[in-house]
């Protein structure tokens, strides 16, 4: 009727898309130099970064230490270090065999000097059990010397005709989240060992 008004109802709606679980990580292994002489100092940095949208419950790296590298120290954030050792040309014990357990790093360097006569570290495993949030990372640095018959570290690993020699080192990374495990990643570096004759040692 004239003079009356009818109520008008207006509805407003909005939609929001929620990102689903997308776990992921990125691993890297870098070395301090690419080429050098026997007896030279050499270090590797192992890094695990959370690139997903879920926290990593654990990140772990296993590094098979090559014969031509004499590992002496490890420096990392909070984590657990395990290492396997061998003597001379004896094969490295299997991963399932009992490993030495150094315990928590707490940010301090762990020096591996008391290995016994002729022993060397042939494998390490670092486990970070502390939660790694998205976009955060954890890392460790392992240090030592290139072995060889020439230079400061004398060893029968090389002969004068064995140069140049490729010191190949592969690390295997893995990670887990509440959604399950993430596929492993292998990272490999190659350090070219050259004869010290006519080649100054790289600082």
Characterise this structure.
- It is built from no helices and 12 strands.
- Residues 150-156 have low confidence and may be disordered.
- The radius of gyration is 26 Å and the shape is elongated.
- 0% of the residues lie in helices and 48% in strands.
- With 203 residues, the protein is an all-beta fold.
- A 7-stranded mixed sheet has the order 2-12-11-4-9-6-7, with no helix packed on it. The chain has a 5-stranded antiparallel sheet with strand order 1-3-10-5-8, with no helix packed on it.
Give the helix proportion (percent range): under 10%
Determine the N-to-C terminus distance: 98 Å
User: Roughly what is the average pLDDT, rounded to an integer?
Assistant: 80
Low-confidence parts lasting 5 or more residues at pLDDT below 50? 150-156
Which features does this protein show?
elongated, 203 residues, mainly beta, 48% strand, 7-stranded mixed beta sheet
Task: Produce the secondary structure layout.
Layout: E1 25-31, E2 35-36, E3 41-50, E4 58-64, E5 69-76, E6 80-87, E7 100-104, E8 109-111, E9 119-128, E10 137-146, E11 165-177, E12 180-193
Parallel strand pairs: 2-12
Antiparallel strand pairs: 1-3, 3-10, 4-9, 4-11, 5-8, 5-10, 6-7, 6-9, 11-12
Short account of what is shown:
By secondary structure, the protein is mostly beta strands. It has strands spanning 25-31, 35-36, 41-50, 58-64, 69-76, 80-87, 100-104, 109-111, 119-128, 137-146, 165-177, 180-193.
